[in-house]
Amino acid sequence: MSTYSGPQTLIYQADPTSLHHVKKVRESMHGSLKPHINRKVRIQTIDGVTHEGMISGIDEGHLYLTVPASGAAMRGFYNPYYPPYPYYYPVSPVGSAILPLVLYNLLAISLL
Q1: Which of 7, 42, 79, 86 has its CA 20 to 30 A from that of 71?
Q2: Contact at 8 Å (CB) between 50 and 110?
Q3: Among residues 68, 61, 69, 73, which one has the least CA distance to residue 100?
Q4: Cβ distance 106 to 45 under 8 Å?
Q5: What pTM did the predictor assign?
Q6: What is the pLDDT of residues 37-95, one digit of tens each?
Q7: Which one-letter DSSP state was computed for residue 112?
Q8: Which burial class, exposed, middle or buried, applies to 110 when counting CB atoms under 10 A from its CB (0-12, 13-18, 19+)?
Q9: What span, in angstroms and rounded, lies between the C-alpha atoms of 110 and 82?
């Protein structure tokens, strides 16, 4: 809820055709990735960055990749309450971090 009462200026609005395409890609990725949770993968983003790790979870817009803590020291989420509570969050083994990746930013995913 915003407390600002001044005039609002729209600075970006997604093209409806692009939005529809992104939603279809996201649905397709969910169907492809869900059977491979807890499997080791190599992921390449559209920016050319490559990550290796284990798929620990997937939600509406993100893939959660468990990676060694040393490789994700600045970008990963550490779990101080291992195992997590409640238990439906992605689990990060000791000495590792969970790296959240935006689904539509992924270019290629291969099993290792």
Answers
A1: 86
A2: no
A3: 61
A4: yes
A5: 0.69
A6: 999 999 999 989 999 999 998 888 889 998 887 644 445 555 544 444 444 445 555 56
A7: -
A8: exposed
A9: 28
